Structures are given as structure tokens and as C-alpha cells.
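Structure ticket #2291
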Amino acid sequence: MPYAFANLEDASSLANYIVAKRKDVLNAKINRYPKRAFTCSDIHECDRYMIHSVLDWDKRELHDTGLQAIFDAGNREEENVKNRIGYELGLEFVETQSPFEIKNREGEVIASGKIDGKILWNGKAVPVEIKSMNENSFNTINSLDDFRKKPLYRKYLRQMQLYLYGNNQEAGLFIISNFRTEKIILVTLDYGECEYILSRLERLWEMKKKGIYPDPEYRPELCDRCPFSSICLADVINKPADFINNEALEEKLSRREELAAAKKEYDELDEEIKATFKQIPHAFVGQSFEIIGKEQIRKSVDTKAMPDDVKAPYMKETSCWITKIKKL
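Resolution: structure written out below.
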């Protein structure tokens, strides 16, 4: 039986229905969940965030539908990777989403997490963590050193190290995907890194039990998108607001929002291109670009590895003004 032809009103109403219904479906998945311990996949670089994540889980700012769609796509891609790597290559994934716990010296569970699964190989189970990302990010990650360049990717490393430590495993694999193909990166257990992570978790756990929050430290790359910023920076953002009628200033702020996406794209492309030319001292691209590179040795003090009593005499307080801009 032939269907009747749709008119403009039919197509328009269908478009509106799809957009609204899709938003409803995504909104239904957005929620907060109680936390009794730290989460191994969310070992944040900010100590204050870590305490908020457990003591104030119910005050966490909910993410939007756009981010929820990204989460959903990542979950679906995990299954796609298992199909491509597993079934198509004849490999077997076992113990998917295996839970694990990290305990302190008193036997208290201070952190918990899951691993995406294990692949059976030569009669043994190799732990695997699957991460999907956009093309630009995918192209910049080719080694464990590349994971250390951004806060988000450093969380991936902490999660895997805690799993390896907690389950007495020597090594595992990261499988990263750009939604079409994969890269396989070997991860070995780093006892030094694990010791640092564990000592930090134990210190924060004691603060959590006492209800103590670390002193705030404003870092734009972490704080500007933090889901706890409304309570963490309450002394700054909860004061009575001034209303300023200034069209020129408002235009500048609007232009700032427009450039934000371009800056993000520029930073990702810049990182990808520079990664391409790593270890290449001199090159020409076409007739328009000359690339010059050289190796430099930088010296720095690893303050994270220093005991608190060593750092204490050198601690000093400085005043800073925190400016947080939100588009209404």
C-alpha cells in the first residue's frame, strides 16, 4: 500500500518531535548518584574536588544533554570495539565491567572502580580499558607520555594503575578509538606512581572523614568547568551582582564566546601537528611552511613527590582575583 506524500507541515512537525523527544530521552539519563568512596576513574587533580565528590555528591552540577550524548556514544563505541577487536579477530572478552576496590592500611575502602574487561590470551586474562575520543585527540596519543599531557588523559592513567595495583597485574592495554579504528597502547605497573596515588588518596580520605576541605586554589583549566564550582567558589560568585549596561563590553563578551570554540580547535590542531613533527629537526610542507624543531632539556622540581613537612617551610600565601564568566 503506497503511503501519502508528506507536506511541509508534516516534515516540520516531525523535526520538532525528534528534537524534543531526543532531549527528553537524554535528560532522563542525567542524574546524581551517592558516593561513599573515591572513584578510580575520577581521580581528579584538584584535592578540593575529591572531597566535594564524596561529601557533596548531591550538590554536583548536572551535565547537559550534549555531554550525555557523548557519554552514550562512548558506551556504544565500547561495544563496537569489543566486536571489532573481539569477535572479528576471534578474541574473547571476559569479566567485563569487573569491579575492584582500593583499601587503606586500616582496611577501609577508600576508592572503587571498574575495568572495561579482559582479553583471554595464551590462557591468561589481559586487562583492557577502552577509551573513545575525537579525531584530533586520537591523533595526538601514541604513547603513555601523550596521556600525561592533559588532565583528562592523566585520569585514565591513574585508573589503570590503580587497577593493576589492586589486582596484582603487571601490565594491561589501553584501546583508544576514533569511532572507526583503534590504537593499542601497553601500560605497565608503575609502583612509584601507584605509591604517590595511594598516599594522596589516604591523605584525602582522612580529610573526608573529618569533613575538612583543602584550601581552594583557582586553576582556570580545572575550575572553569568544575561541577562543584558553585559551592567551591561560593565566596566569590554568591555576592550580590552588579548589573552593567555597556553594549561595547557585552559585544566583547559575545565575541569571546565565539572565539572559544576556535581556540579549542586551534589548540587541538596545534598539538596534533607538533606531535607529527616530533624528533624531526627540519622539514618543509609544500611551499608555504617550514618546520624547525630541536630537543631541549628542562629542569623542574617535582613538588608532588616531596613530603608535606619538606614543602611546609616554603609555603606562602598570595592574593589573587578569580573571574568566572558564564554565558546566560
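Closing remark: The CA atoms of residues 218 and 320 lie 9 Å apart.
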